[in-house]
Amino acid sequence: MPEIKVVNMAGAEVGTMTLSDKVFGAEVNGDILHAAVKAYLANQRQGTQSTLTRTEVSGGGKKPYRQKGTGRARQGSTRAPQWTHGGIALGPKPRSYRVSMNKKVKRTAMFSAFSAKVAAGEMIVVDQIAAEAFKTATMAKMLSDVKASGKTLVVLAENDEKVVKSFANIADVKTEQYNCLSVYDILNCESIVFAKDAVSKIEEVYAK
């Protein structure tokens, strides 16, 4: 089972934590991670793009000129695609981009994502993440002290408004609750900072 050190908000080591082998020590499956990220990004698409076909644009009821004798190509409507203000041929219409994954594959993807972060040394566990007031400087100092660098994901056990809003003004830092994580969130950061109780709750949910 993998072990990870636990630090306080000042960056001092206060102990170690044995992680679940099933959740944080699994074999990393690159194919499933790729599928999970693709599904996540596809599901973010609204699919509301739309264009008007020749039947939906206004006008064009009358034949613009006679069929023969003008020397020009025959035309039946000024709303055909080749005309200015005409309809769009084969343009996009509203559609769903939804991609579904079964529960077992989703869990495997989560295990792979967590395990990849542990293996890369990009996971940091803090014994408690708390704020006495709405203070961005306090949280910025904490990230510096625990050596979280680059794009950072902070994972909490429960929604703490003071903590969340204190992190909100720090560039490239995102906060999430443990039960709202996605594979994309986990992989799309250079450091992932867990509150210790959030790790326990993740293991409680996934290690069954």
Biggest sheet layout:
6 strands, mixed
Distance between the termini: 16 Å
Helix content: 25-40%
* Strand count: 6
Widest sheet, order of strands: 2-1-3-6-4-5
Order of helices and strands, N to C?
Answer: EEHHHEHEHEHEH
Question: Beta-strand percentage?
Answer: 5-15%
- Which outline best applies? elongated
List the helices and strands and how they pair.
Layout: E1 3-7, E2 13-18, H1 21-24, H2 30-43, H3 103-119, E3 123-126, H4 136-145, E4 152-156, H5 161-168, E5 173-177, H6 183-187, E6 191-195, H7 196-206
Helix pairs in contact: 2-3, 4-5
Question: What would your notes on this structure say?
Answer:
With 208 residues, the protein is an alpha/beta fold. The chain contains seven helices and six strands. It has helices spanning 21-24, 30-43, 103-119, 136-145, 161-168, 183-187, 196-206; strands at residues 3-7, 13-18, 123-126, 152-156, 173-177, 191-195. Strands 2-1-3-6-4-5 form a six-stranded mixed beta sheet. A hairpin with a 5-residue loop joins strand 1 and strand 2 (13-18). The protein starts with a strand and ends with a helix.
Quick recap:
With 208 residues, the chain is an alpha/beta fold. It has helices at residues 21-24, 30-43, 103-119, 136-145, 161-168, 183-187, 196-206; strands spanning 3-7, 13-18, 123-126, 152-156, 173-177, 191-195.
